[in-house]
From TrEMBL:
Active site: residue positions: E124
Cofactor note: Binds 1 [4Fe-4S] cluster per subunit.
EC number annotated for this UniProt entry: 1.17.7.4
The protein's name in its UniProt record: 4-hydroxy-3-methylbut-2-enyl diphosphate reductase
Record organism: candidate division WOR-1 bacterium RIFOXYC12_FULL_54_18
Function field: Catalyzes the conversion of 1-hydroxy-2-methyl-2-(E)-butenyl 4-diphosphate (HMBPP) into a mixture of isopentenyl diphosphate (IPP) and dimethylallyl diphosphate (DMAPP). Acts in the terminal step of the DOXP/MEP pathway for isoprenoid precursor biosynthesis.
Associated pathway: Isoprenoid biosynthesis; dimethylallyl diphosphate biosynthesis; dimethylallyl diphosphate from (2E)-4-hydroxy-3-methylbutenyl diphosphate: step 1/1; Isoprenoid biosynthesis; isopentenyl diphosphate biosynthesis via DXP pathway; isopentenyl diphosphate from 1-deoxy-D-xylulose 5-phosphate: step 6/6
Bilayer-spanning residue ranges: none
């Protein structure tokens, strides 16, 4: 049985960087992590085992210590609140997200409405709204544009870094058709689309596809959907323990990919188990 691994699989550069920085933090003082550093239970457990304490809000922190800002970033209010609490900040915001935040602040500084294409509940989008200084509006679909009213004379559009390119372009077209002075800043990062194309390419060549990642990870679930759409039987697993050997019966080529929040050690365990299964 041959195992083909997708070219872009597992941690994206932003998550890899955030994880490495988090592990470097000395353990002699409390380290708090605002939100999930990544959407992966095994990674979060590993960080917890090193004494990193997860919090949903800074109001949960009463002692001095270090605050880790995740790769998704945070609003300026969070930095200010952390400073006032005397917390040392370790900022793991991905450089791509930082770039989008900078554009949001610059547009708002010029008095423009900032339209953010993204998922309303996502931490990155909440941070971008903060950087838009009260001038931000989140748009999820082209249909949302029809209800949009803008008091400002200019409008700038940015995106959550993991948005689909097609959706972004459709929303840009809807905004341009409705408003004058629309500035479009494409802040989508290439990591998601590269991972998706690589997964589809492999899924088309194999007779079973395994997608590794947390069921709570939106980008992993999307990879599973896209692989299944190719017509190849696809299973999503969180760890090697979920791999059912009966899936491999009669299969000659198996494809493997992993979401942007899946660490190398889990993908490695699955590949190693596949190589040991003799059918
Ligand atoms: S998906 Fe892109 S923007 Fe988001 S953390 Fe990864 S590299 Fe950064």
């Amino acid at each position: 049985m041959e195992v083909l691994v997708a070219k872009h699989a597992g941690f994206c550069v932003g998550v890899e960087r955030a994880y490495k920085i988090a592990l470097q933090e000395p353990e002699n003082q409390p380290v708090y992590m605002l939100g999930n550093l990544v959407h992966n239970k095994q990674v979060v457990e590993r960080l917890r085992a090193r004494g990193i304490i997860g919090v949903h809000s800074l109001s949960e922190i009463s002692a001095k210590g270090t605050l880790l800002i995740s790769a998704h970033g945070a609003s300026p209010e969070i930095y200010e609140e952390a400073k006032q609490k005397g917390l040392k900040i370790i900022d793991t915001t991905c450089p791509w997200v930082k770039k989008a935040q900078k554009i949001a602040a610059e547009l708002a500084g010029r008095g423009c409405r900032v339209v953010i294409v993204g998922d309303k509940g996502h931490a990155e989008v909440k941070g971008l709204l903060g950087w838009s200084g009260g001038r931000g509006t989140v748009v999820e679909t082209p249909a949302d544009v029809s209800n949009l009213t803008v008091a400002e004379n200019c409008l700038g559009m940015i995106a959550q870094t993991t948005q689909a390119e097609e959706q972004f372009q459709n929303i840009a077209a809807a905004l341009r058709a409705k408003f004058a002075n629309v500035e479009v800043h494409n802040t989508i990062c290439g990591a998601t689309s590269h991972r998706q194309s690589a997964a589809i390419e492999i899924a088309k060549q194999v007779d079973l596809m395994l997608v590794i990642g947390d069921k709570m990870s939106a980008n992993t679930n999307r990879l599973t959907e896209l692989c299944a759409k190719t017509g190849t039987k696809t299973f999503q697993i969180e760890t090697a323990a979920e791999l059912d050997p009966s899936w491999l019966t009669g299969k000659t080529k198996v494809g493997v990919t992993a979401g942007a929040s899946t660490p190398k050690w889990i993908t490695g365990e699955v590949i190693s188990l596949l190589s040991k299964i003799v059918l």
